[in-house]
Amino acid sequence: DGMRNSNCVAIAPTATPDTPYVIITEIRLENGLYVVDYETHNYPADQPNMHVHMFFNTVSPEQAGSPGAGPWLLTWGPYGLPPFTQYGPANRPADATQMCALVANANHTIIPNSGNCVNLPDQ
After folding, report:
1. Nearest to 39 by CA among 57, 52, 28
2. pLDDT per residue over 16-52, tens digit each?
3. Does 4 fall in a domain?
4. How far is 3 from 69, CA to CA, in rounded Å?
5. Does residue 56 belong to any structural domain of this protein?
6. Is residue 105 part of a domain?
């Protein structure tokens, strides 16, 4: 019938965001603390209090910033540079499997879909 059955589907390339975002690149366990390496991108120079919220994946992204209940901890900008080392296995909820990061504004509201989650190392 002249029609070729092709399983090939063109996938549009994913654009690199031009808005602020954070990427956790590695998490390792050192001296009883998680050492979380991360990179921030596209943070505007005119918003020096923009930062990162770190949280376990037992917290939904909607709860990981104001007015959510959290818990989350602060890093980047006025709250310190990478790596993030404020959480350890002692803080880890029993059902948490990942550490997550999202970009947060000065008022602690978060920017949806501005970060990632990475598996936690085994204790």
Report:
1. 52
2. 778 999 999 999 999 999 999 999 999 999 999 999 9
3. no
4. 56
5. yes
6. yes
Place of tokens 């991108």: 41
Total number of domains constituting the chain: 1
Find out whether 118 and 27 touch, Cβ atoms under 8 Å. yes
Please state, rounded to an integer, the average pLDDT across all residues of the chain. Answer: 91
Encoded amino acid at 118, one letter: V
The verdict on residue 12 lying in a domain is: no
8-to-4, 12, 13 alpha-carbon distances in Å: 11, 13, 15
CATH number at residue 92: 2.60.40
Contact 104, 40 (CB under 8 A): no
pLDDT-derived band at 1 (thresholds 50, 70, 90) equals very low
Beta carbons within 8 Å of 68's beta carbon, 6+ residues apart: 59, 60, 62
29 is in which domain, residue-wise? 21-119
Q: Is the dihedral of CA 87, 69, 105, 60 positive or negative?
A: positive
